[in-house]
Amino acid sequence: MPGPDNTILVTGARAPVALHLARLLHGAGRRVILADSPARPIAAASTACARYRRLPPPRFEPAAYAEAVEALVRAESIDLVIPTCEEVFYLALAWRERAIPARLFAPGIELLAQVHDKHAFVRLAESLGLAVPETTLLQSAADLDAVRSHSRDLVFKPVWSRFASQVLLRPLPGALDAISPSPAAPWVAQRFVPGNEISAYAVARDGALKAFSLYRSLYRAGKGASIYFEPVEDPAARHLVERIVAATGWSGQISFDLMREADGRVLPLECNPRAVSGLHFFRDPLRFADALLGTGAEVRPPDVATPQTVRLAMWIYGLPAALRSGGLRGFRHAMREADDLLDWPDDPAPKKAQWRALAEIAGLAWRERISLQAASTRDMEWNGPLQT
Questions:
Q1: What is the pTM of this model?
Q2: Which residues have C-beta within 8 Å of that of residue 70, sequence separation ≥ 6?
Q3: Residues 105 and 83: beta-carbon distance below 8 Å
Q4: Transmembrane region positions (predicted)?
């Protein structure tokens, strides 16, 4: 299909959101190249994938990663690069340091780092006049001791983290002995906010919202990543997202964890400058491609209202959680109600490929003695400018 953004590179091919994005863009007539560091990610099996390129791991070999991405862009005459996971940080650094002849659908590294930083993001939202939960930066044992006495009113989490990893929810004071905040690995202590947690996914261009969905997670992989989610609506949440997108001039995908209090007020908890599960509520390729690439002023709402899930993940994580909580009946009902987000017309291969992808991740988890969830992002995580 001739025209702008004809050939698009989607990175983070291990993620279901990358597969979904590739299917949408392919359905809109674009040629989609996929790239990532695993050998056999699920998206590589899709009919939407014109080619899959395996890349060096960005976290451990950032220079080689940048060089490989630039070579791929030039070899395939790629017009646009769309990150889906935390490789966005390494790509932003590559775009700052190299003359790569393609557009990156993401802001610069400074803005990405600001919103990913759980303390800096709250300060940003506060500066825009938004209500925020009280959030304290912890960079030393003295900082930790200063909040220890009221730890039962707080949530502790690393400034640079994902999937609620390492979160301490209203811990006893003694439990804080397990963490050691430092300037290189800071934490935050955030006021515990009772209410209903909701998540937001947005596409924006030049500070204008172009696609938007809200959802709540009914089942998760451990504490964090959602594996079963249903759409919700909330005008206050949309207003909050629009304010942040406009103030930052955001171009790219951006996501938020929000808390809706009993009185309807919505507070921002943290921001993820990447795709999240809310993308799966968009199923119309032409309309989504227009939101992502077009020039219209309309904000694209979700196309489907049915709950979405990955059934394999539900069997691995959801069923054990249901058995522990006595919620087996609810689990069975949820499985009946939801669509498997991997299902797509005339594209069955990724559903089968998820077993090979899972085996690759499980092998890494076994070798490194880490969880499946940690293994799934280990080589692309970005833990701040001083990460080790």
A1: 0.93
A2: 94, 98, 100
A3: yes
A4: none
Angle between helices 87-97 and 109-116 (to 10 degrees): 150
Q: What's the CA gap between 60 and 135, in Å, rounded?
A: 31
CA angle, 310 as apex, 106 and 326 as ends, to 5°?
125
Q: Average the pLDDT over each of 111-115, 130-134, 215-219, 245-249 and give the range with the smallest value.
A: 215-219
Q: Look at residue 1 in the predicted model and tell me its pLDDT.
A: 36
Q: Which CATH superfamily does the domain covering 196-345 fall into?
A: ATP-grasp fold, B domain (3.30.470.20)
- Contacts of residues 65-71 at CB distance under 8 Å and 24 or more positions apart, as own/partner, are 65/90, 65/94, 66/90, 66/93, 66/94, 66/97, 66/98, 69/9, 69/11, 69/35, 69/94, 69/100, 70/94, 70/98, 70/100
Residue 2 has pLDDT above 50, yes or no: no
Evaluate if residue 169 carries a pLDDT over 90.
yes
Contact (CB, 8 A) for 113 and 385: yes
* Average per-residue pLDDT for the chain: 92
Q: Is the pLDDT of residue 128 over 60?
A: yes
CA distance 38 to 337: 32
* Residue extents of the structural domains in the chain: 1-106+348-381, 134-191, 196-345
Nearest Cα residue to 155 out of 103, 121, 191, 204: 191
